[in-house]
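Reading a protein record of the kind used here takes little practice once its layout is understood. The reader may check this reading against the record printed directly beneath this paragraph.
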Amino acid sequence: MAVDESSDPLARATEALRSEDDGAWTELSRTILERVRTLVVPAESVVSFNDEGETERGARGSTIRVSTRVLVPALRHDLETPSRATDAIEVVVTDDRCVAVKIDLVGVYGADLQAEGDEVRRAVSEVLRSALGPDPDFDADRDIRVSFVDVVTQDPHRQ
């Protein structure tokens, strides 16, 4: 393999790599892409409740479940504002029930973080009630944890 010594080092390296036809890289690349496509975000199924706070519906006693893959984006959508951004959202599920929600936020400097936290707690409660119905054992004050993990002087969405 002849390489022009007078050209740019990056150009020489690129030319050298192109001149070597190693089929193993193509196979490795294909295998990696296949594995990446099979990755699935872990999720849990959460039981929902009817207006009376019961999980069973109809004569057959069927239940409706909602995936945390649905809940987390719905929460993120309703929690994002110009003065705060979600850093992490965790829906804690025990025995198929949502027993807690943990929200980590990034706030903007100068915002009333206490008021922001109260607003986030109300929004989380509304999203859960809309998606899951009224769980008689879920207490928003007890079961929704809101934490500000960072405060920034600029757009909190660009951290």
